[in-house]
Design brief:
about 20% helix, single chain, alpha/beta, about 350 residues, 6-stranded antiparallel beta barrel, 17 strands, 9-stranded mixed sheet
Length: about 350
């Protein structure tokens, strides 16, 4: 099999194709149908007609929290925390943006009137994140005083529109610091059309971390170490998948986070826990037949995942077509529909 390096997953993207705002309506986004040859330009609201009665649509029901918090050190220096996860009680682990890291034990004065005490690095003494103890319930202070953690390539400060639109209609369990963006295109009309067509739905949870935006930096992609994220595959979803296989239907994953969750469960046998699964070309998929996904960053682990799923050459062709046809890229951008390389849609 071909050996891939980091440079194989690079591409030139005109900056104006990076979507800074969502489409006026969720389901009005464009959909590149990569299951057809040649690929067909569609609108996302057409998705139900592209699926078959009895297909099972699995989506990630994580809820984005307002994880970006601002404050100051005792010296007066400004800082920013991006909460990665709540780890029990009032404790969180977070990324920090500050000119000089304060010493352990420092009490930070945060906007909104609460404090954050630095306890140390996480998950160990050399870990990349920091553990803090908030003076109040973390979910409460994030909801009241936090900001929507928009991706780094979105230039504007978060607004009321972002609080609504950087959240899926399926959002149920708070804990993500990035949206499962493929699901941002679904609205109530699309969900109703799926139900009317006899397409079943099930959910998983994966709390998306900020590491999803980090590019791979090692030319040897096998040397890359993935960030860890918490996931769960509920018993009802396990039963729905078992019933699907008995019927011979297709599993349609909404987004790469759903893929990572299902394939982590398939390999570990654990329906709940942390995963750092890294999916690259050559990976053998056990669950997913079709994938709905957005267009991903160059040199990203997500671009590697979709290349593993639909075939590297096919993905590169689709990206070239999307750029030529002026599709909108990344979190607030458009979507595509892919079939697993071994099957036809």
């Amino acid at each position: 099999m071909r050996r891939f390096s980091l440079g194989d997953f690079d591409f030139a993207l005109p900056p104006e194709l990076i979507a800074q705002h969502p489409a006026a309506q969720r389901s009005a986004s464009r959909l590149l149908d990569g299951t057809s040859s040649p690929p067909v330009d569609r609108v996302f609201r057409e998705l139900p007609s592209l699926l078959q009665p009895g297909d099972l649509l699995v989506f990630n029901d994580t809820q984005v929290v307002k994880a970006r918090l601002f404050g100051s050190k005792p010296t007066g220096g400004r800082l920013e925390l991006l909460v990665e996860r709540v780890v029990g009680g009032h404790d969180v682990v977070a990324h920090t943006k500050v000119s000089k890291k304060p010493p352990v034990g420092t009490v930070l004065a945060m906007e909104g009137g609460f404090t954050a005490t630095l306890l140390g690095r996480w998950p160990d003494a050399d870990g990349p994140l920091f553990r803090f103890r908030f003076s109040d319930d973390p979910y409460l202070v994030m909801e009241r005083h936090g900001h929507v953690p928009l991706p780094p390539y979105i230039a504007h400060a978060d607004t009321a529109q972002d609080a609504q639109r950087y959240q899926t209609v399926f959002a149920k369990h708070p804990g993500a610091v990035a949206a499962p963006t493929a699901a941002l295109h679904f609205d109530e009309s699309v969900v109703a059309a799926l139900d009317a067509r006899g397409i079943r739905r099930a959910s998983v949870t994966l709390h998306v971390g900020a590491g999803t935006f980090q590019p791979v930096k090692t030319e040897d992609i096998a040397a890359h170490r993935m960030h860890s994220e918490w996931y769960e595959v509920p018993a009802a979803t396990q039963a729905a998948i078992a019933h699907l296989r008995e019927r011979g239907g297709r599993l349609v994953a909404v987004g790469t986070t759903t893929v990572r969750t299902l394939e982590s469960w398939a390999r570990s046998g654990q329906a709940c826990g942390d995963t750092d699964i890294f999916i690259t070309p050559g990976f053998q998929f056990r669950h997913v037949d079709l994938l709905i996904t957005n267009f991903h960053l160059p040199k990203s682990t997500l671009l590697m995942l979709v290349s593993a799923f639909a075939g590297y050459d096919h993905i590169m062709d689709l990206y070239r077509a999307a750029i030529a046809r002026r599709y909108r890229f990344f979190s607030y951008g458009d979507a595509m529909l892919l079939a697993r390389a071994e099957i036809t849609a």
